[in-house]
Design a protein that fits this description.
It is a single chain. By secondary structure, the chain is α+β, with helices and mostly antiparallel strands. The protein has a domain of 149 residues: 2-Layer Sandwich (Heat Shock Protein 90), CATH 3.30.565. Helix content is 36%, strand content 22%. It contains six helices and nine strands. It has a seven-stranded mixed beta sheet with strand order 3-2-5-6-7-9-8. A two-stranded antiparallel sheet has the order 1-4. β6 and β7 form a beta hairpin. α3 runs antiparallel to α4 and α4 runs antiparallel to α6. The termini are far apart.
Length: 216
Amino acid sequence: MSLRNEAIRDLCPPQGVTRATNDAPVSNSPTAILDSPSDATAESATDACRESAARRVLQFELENDPAGVSAVVNAVVEEVRRISRPDGSEDVRLRVALEEALVNAVVHGNLEVSSDLREAGDGSYERLIDRRRHQAKYRDRRVRLTCELRRDEAVFVVRDEGGGFDADRLPDPRESDRMQRAGGRGVFLMRTLMDAVEYSVQGTVVTMRKRWGATK
């Protein structure tokens, strides 16, 4: 007896795609994540159930407010805990890397504020962020985060709408003349804490991969 995809959905309510903004979920309607063909046997339906239970895709859209990043990171970490149950140290690594990636995308990507300005320590960095959040050139830009979560691995894709940059040309913050400067520190942390970090050629998309239980 063959079953169509609709029947598989009935047998196994999918985990689906969750879309959210900084403040609240936009839609929590589940969408089936099935790679099976249109006709499937009962056995493949069972496989689809297992796959759906072990895989979840989350999508977030963030406005250009660094203060909204923590809420999104908390939501992602909570879901990772539910699916993958990483140990405490991996939990912390994930949280720091995600916060760095999202803040970088908002501040340096969409708002195009240089980290060099932060070194002045006179509040000009924060004032420029706040000013650009409301300027026509920047205010409608968004950061989008897609998370594909599995029991043994998670992949995070962060997209911004800024001008981009060349990640390979960032200074190494471990060099003696850079240790007291902010530039490059966030990306260095991301690369240290995640198992793989890749930037697009344009520098507006970063993909981070974390395998649970892996050691760097």
